[in-house]
Amino acid sequence: MSNPTHQSEMTSSKLRSSFSFPNLLLSCFNFTLFILSAASLAPIVLLRMPPASLGLAFLIVSCISLLSSLVGFCSQLTRFCFITHISLLLASLIGQILSILALFTREKSSLSMLKTRRDPKEAKLLVRVECGIFMAMLLIQLLVLVLSCTVHTCWVREYEGLEAEREATAKKRSRRIARVQEESMANAAKIAEIKAKEFDEKMKSKYCQWVKTDFEG
Fold first, then answer.
1. Mean per-residue pLDDT for 197-217?
2. Which of 49, 99, 104, 166 is surrounded by the most beta carbons within 10 Å?
3. Residue 186: half-sphere exposure toward Cβ, Cα within 13 Å
């Protein structure tokens, strides 16, 4: 009989090979998101350190994006961090949308709330760079979200198909073993029956010889 651990390893290897290209694409997106999230920390730090309340909110959004990219790598390896990954992605997306709205539509008020001591032109440039990075992060995270859900759904379907196939194979094997056992038991019963008949015939022949001997005597 095959080892269940060996079967699970074969199943995992089949699944990894089936989704090698989507996983590679997802890894590239997560890596890009990691770089953008790390880069988005720089403008806020350069504007004011320690940051004001709005700058701290932007830093939290960047850190959530950074964490979601790291969890994305882990979810590709284990498949057990999927819900955590999606939750972080959604939280980061909401934060990025609000940040983009604040920086893009209310640039002057955002600058005043950031309380920077830098030159107004430099501060405006840093705010626009931050807004651009957030827009790029938003686009990448939308792609990561869609691709992660698609890969996970296909992975679950394929895993269920492989499990059903393995169960069907196990049932066939058990039926085959049961059939072999029934045939061996039937053969054993036939052999026992033949031996019993041979024993009866021997006893009859011996009985006939005894009767013949007694009659002659």
1. 65
2. 99
3. 6
